[in-house]
Amino acid sequence: MEERRESQPTAGCSDVGPGGERGGVARSWAPEDAWMGTHPKYLEMMELDIGDATQVYIAFLVYLDLMESKSWHEVNCVGLPDLQLICLLGTEIEGEGVQTVVPTPISASLSHNRIREILKASRKLQGDPDLPMSFTLAIVESDSTIVYYKLTDGFMLPDPQNISLRR
């Protein structure tokens, strides 16, 4: 009888199943010799020396999504050593204010206190203490799907321009 071996993940691919594990072993999301391992922005994120290779990899995936799919402007990476986070700062529409995006794997758990710490750090990064505290949480699934949630300090009324009227 021939023994079946579990396939190894392809460099640059997660090969992680639901719950972050496959066959009882968590796989790394980090690209080992993939093209993104030599990308200047990926290398810049690695130089921040914050978190592990998985955090850098998901931050890079979010960076690519913001730049290539969503056409954001001037997206930069910033390390928050106290929180062990890599944040992305950018503008969705040219000329508008800077937004903070916090990439996180779907397996991460965030407490209310942790969210409050990120909100405070985001306000400092945005540089305007009069703005309401907010950041966008970019949740990355193992298949590289990214879902964005805007988190604020309390409730905020939606912009009337973004509301479609139902009749």
UniProtKB/TrEMBL annotation:
Predominantly, its location class is nucleus
tRNA-splicing endonuclease subunit Sen15 domain ranges (all copies): 61-160
Region Disordered, as annotated, extends over 1-29
Q: Which InterPro entries match?
A: tRNA-endonuc_su_Sen15, tRNA_endonuc-like_dom_sf, tRNA_intron_Endo_cat-like_sf
Q: Name one GO molecular function term.
A: nucleic acid binding
Which Gene3D superfamilies is this protein grouped with? 3.40.1350.10
Pfam families membership: Sen15
| Record's GO cellular component terms | nucleolus
Q: Where in the cell is it found?
A: Nucleus, Nucleolus
| Highest rank taxon of the organism | Eukaryota
Q: Which UniProt keywords apply?
A: mRNA processing, Nucleus, Phosphoprotein, tRNA processing
Which SUPFAM superfamilies did the record assign?
A: tRNA-intron endonuclease catalytic domain-like
GO process annotations (BP): mRNA processing; tRNA splicing, via endonucleolytic cleavage and ligation
Q: Does the keyword tRNA processing apply?
A: yes
What's this protein's family per the entry? Belongs to the SEN15 family.
Q: What does the UniProt function comment say about this protein?
A: Non-catalytic subunit of the tRNA-splicing endonuclease complex, a complex responsible for identification and cleavage of the splice sites in pre-tRNA. It cleaves pre-tRNA at the 5' and 3' splice sites to release the intron. The products are an intron and two tRNA half-molecules bearing 2',3' cyclic phosphate and 5'-OH termini. There are no conserved sequences at the splice sites, but the intron is invariably located at the same site in the gene, placing the splice sites an invariant distance from the constant structural features of the tRNA body.
Listed name of the protein: tRNA-splicing endonuclease subunit SEN15
- Tell me the organism: Catagonus wagneri
Its taxonomic path starts at: Eukaryota, Metazoa, Chordata, Craniata, Vertebrata
The gene coding this protein: TSEN15
